[in-house]
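dude i think i finally got it to work??
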Amino acid sequence: MISSNIKKRWIGWRNGWLSSPRFQRFAVRFPLTRPVARRRARALFDLVAGFTYSQILAACIETRLLEVLADGPHDVATVAARIDLPVAGAERLLRAAAALGLSEAVGSGWALGSGGAALRGNRGIAEMVAHHHLLYADLADPLGLLRRGGGGGALSGLWHYAEAVGEGDARAVAAYSALMAASQPMVAAQAIDAYPFHRHRRLLDVGGGEGAFLTAIAERCPGLVLGLFDLPAVAERARTRFDSAGLAGRTTVFGGDFLQGPLPPGYDVITLIRVLHDHDDAPAMTLLRHIHGALPPGGRLVIAEPMARTRGAEPAGDAYFGFYLLAMGSGRPRSAEEIAAMLRAAGFSDTRKLRTGMPLTAGAIVATR
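look at this
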């Protein structure tokens, strides 16, 4: 109680000073506080201007500007012709992109910036940006989204098939499945680096989509026998992917609804790669109990997904994914502690948080049956 009261008084004193115009003028003038004041002003401006930055990034992705600059430098006229913009429009986009580190002026031409190069190397981020127009449409009225409890907009149209009873329509699953296939490798890499999957014999990826995670782990752990479980329409897309990758002989694909019935037995490790946070608490608990029932004693469940209240990655949890999942109409970001409590309630005897190389992308937890 004492520490709580001290914290309240400290917050009140701090906020009183920070909101004072007199203190703000002093902080900008005084040499020792000036750098801090400038950093805070920049952070606040970035918060205000974030939507504009995102739209500049979206324009770079939609025009394929980064691909054009990758074989540069090019002059403005060449860039304009290749991205189908007037010269004035191309120059404005290039300068805006340069301010964000996506492009870079080289003499009289333009080349790819360091941020643009990093973005080109991660197809998943580009795919997410490409479909963000749906999210932005839903966030045009954030209060309306909050008042109706989420969903009901453009983004939820990509996802509704997953919570409907049935096999899933092939056309309905295509868009979201393709997005997950492109963006899942970011999370998959964190999970594979964080946990020694090679110690197991048989792995079942539940909600595995088109098989991006299993395709990645097949290369890293050649001795693993692999299985994938997802809605039948999604599972068919995974089967096609495995056939093309030459993995049909070591991968079994199961079609079904993991919220409706038991999961295939015989696997000593089961994975949920960016699946749990897509579901509200009740269906998430149902899924965890089904997994507990499918695992043998001593079997492991590995969960990897962006997690709330992760130190150093707080905005990705409750801010970005908090509203992303709200717009989807299902699920919420959970902290590692919340997930561990759910696992214990589902019957798992032991849970352990795993260290990942990029917590912003994903945290990881392993639980023992």
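The beta strands are 103-106, 109-112, 202-206, 225-230, 251-255, 269-273, 300-305, 350-354, 363-368.
im so relieved honestly
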